[in-house]
Amino acid sequence: MSDAGGPGLPSYPAGEETPLPADRLGLVALVVALAGAILACLPPVFFLGWIALPVGLTLAIVALRRPARRHGAAAAAVVVSIVGFIAGAVVFVVMLLVAFGEAVGPESSREEARSMASAERPADQEAPAVSMIQASSQARSFHAA
Predict the structure, then answer these.
(1) Taking the domains of the chain in order of start, what are their residue ranges?
(2) What angle do CA 134, 139, 145 make, to 5 degrees?
């Protein structure tokens, strides 16, 4: 048995290529990018996603630049980071639009509801609040006299 691989390394037959070592940094980048993409789409904690996504992308780029390694996980981390940025931006814009709509929309919808309610009510029928006010003022005038 020859010790062609050196001390502590496995020896392989002459015709076979040595397998590339696993890329742990690429795997870490993929996990961080996945976590960032998920967090970026959750409105209460989206800021954590915006922190994790650039970290995952940076780790993925570093992992891709390392020679003689498998790059599958690192390439996937780059794709997940980019998709996470886009999805997080869409969720953020939608969240802003909803918040803006709630801040502006209720006033105009209240006015529309009032105008629709007065248009649907017959002219001879008064609003209950108005008739109550008139009844109390008539009662006061009755007691005053």
Answers:
(1) 21-102
(2) 125
